[in-house]
Amino acid sequence: MEELKYHRILLKLGGESLAGEGGFGIDAKQAADIARRVGEVRELGVDVAVVIGAGNLWRGKVGQEMGMDQATADYMGMLGTVMNALGLMDALEHQGVTTRVMTSIEMKTVAEPYIRRRAIRHLEKGRVVIFGGGTGNPYFSTDTAAALRAMEIGADVLIKATKVDGIYDCDPKKNDSAKKFDEIDYIEAINLRLGVMDSTAITMCMEHKLPILVLNLWDEQALKHALFGNKVGTLVH
Predict the structure, then answer these.
(1) Which residues contact 227 (CB under 8 A, 6 or more apart)?
(2) How far apart are CA 206 and CA 16, in angstroms?
(3) What per-residue confidence (pLDDT) applies to 8?
(4) pTM for this one?
(5) How far is it, in rounded angstroms, from Cα 162 to Cα 143?
(6) Nearest Cα to 157, choosing from 103, 193, 208?
(7) Could you read off the pLDDT of 106-161 as tens digits, one per residue?
(8) 190-198 CB contacts, 8 Å cutoff, 24+ apart
(9) Which of 44, 69, 199, 237 has its CA 20 to 30 A from that of 209?
(10) Which domains are delineated in the chain?
(11) 177: Cβ–Cβ under 8 A, 6 or more apart, which residues?
């Protein structure tokens, strides 16, 4: 029997992963599909934490283009991540996966406030933990929030879920000759401006030697293969 390479993971999802064909809102089927995949990983005995974005509900850049103050636009995005976190929690619990949502912005009537030691305890008890509200501060992306929480909980790897099977030197949807990287180092990922994660998040991971694995979550076997150390996606390390 294969041995797991990663025993605790932080899964970073874009808000669009919950959206339907229109790319907006929360689609129940999409949420159920992601919940099923997360549940399968949890059944392997892997501790799973999740950070999810809010691109399906709100984008801070849109607010800024409307003339909105950036901090206000970012706070709206943070609240959107909490909505997505609650939607994913409901989908997980419908599949029998015990889940907790913790938020960096206190809203005690809907979720637990984020406390690092409590989050780790939830993971130790086999619960999936979803972190909402980003870092709790404007001007920081959910990529940065994912890197921060991954380090705080002692994750073995930060897995960035996309709809592409790794990192390419250019957009593979626009260029048939795009080259895929199996592995890449942090500095190269930053210097090439590949856009897989923002530079703040990558720099944090580099400083703390936290590997980043970019893979296609919609490939039925990709996540499972990755957990056993099989070559999947692109490893940034």
Answers:
(1) 4, 5, 6, 9, 41, 44, 46
(2) 27
(3) 98
(4) 0.94
(5) 13
(6) 208
(7) 999 999 999 999 999 999 999 999 999 999 999 999 999 999 999 999 999 999 99
(8) 194/167, 194/168, 194/169, 196/160, 196/162, 196/167, 196/234, 196/236, 197/143, 197/147, 197/160, 198/141, 198/143, 198/144
(9) 44
(10) 8-236 (3.40.1160.10)
(11) none
| Residue-level length of the chain | 237
